[in-house]
Design goal:
The structure is a single chain. This protein is of the alpha/beta class. It has one domain: DsrEFH-like (Hypothetical Protein Ychn, Chain: A, 3-Layer(aba) Sandwich), CATH 3.40.1260.10. The protein has 3 helices and 7 strands, in the order βαββαβββαβ. A 5-stranded parallel β-sheet has the order 6-3-2-1-7. The protein has a two-stranded antiparallel ribbon with strand order 4-5. The mean pLDDT is 92.
Length: 136
């Protein structure tokens, strides 16, 4: 990475509905990526619910913004870390999560998964490796 370019980690800790945090975080990530920030995402605690597939928000009276996560790869957001312990504590597995993909230009545009399940210990190392951490 060139000098002066900072790595940004956006940490998502809140459930997708009931507050504005999840939607606001997603909007900020897309804006940052559009301005070519080096963006990574982390989902832990109740934030893991943001990536659960099959949201149905009609009874909540709120917009279903889940499809927007599918655009992350188009904005070159290819590192989406999900804490395994947070999934386990909520009775979730990787199979419960949306399939987020990106096209790897270094590998003949092969589609690859963006989501990486990591341990709490690995998440701490990821956080330490970033210059800026924004928590939602």
């Amino acid at each position: 990475m060139s000098e002066g370019v900072k790595k940004f980690l956006y940490v998502n800790r809140k459930a997708p509905h009931g507050t504005i945090y999840a939607l606001e975080a997603l909007e900020v990530v897309l804006i940052g990526a559009a301005f070519e920030q080096d963006v990574e995402l982390a989902f832990l605690d109740d934030g893991v619910f943001q990536l659960v597939k099959g949201w149905d928000t009609k009874d909540l009276g709120s917009k279903n913004f889940a499809p927007t996560y599918m655009a992350l790869g188009d904005f070159e957001v290819t590192k989406v870390f999900v804490e395994k312990e947070s999934l386990d504590e909520r009775g979730l597995t990787a199979d419960d999560l949306m399939e987020l993909m990106y096209e790897d230009e270094d590998d003949d545009w092969a589609e690859k998964p963006s989501i990486r399940i990591v341990s709490r210990e690995e998440m701490a190392r990821i956080m330490a490796a970033n210059d800026v951490i924004l928590s939602f």
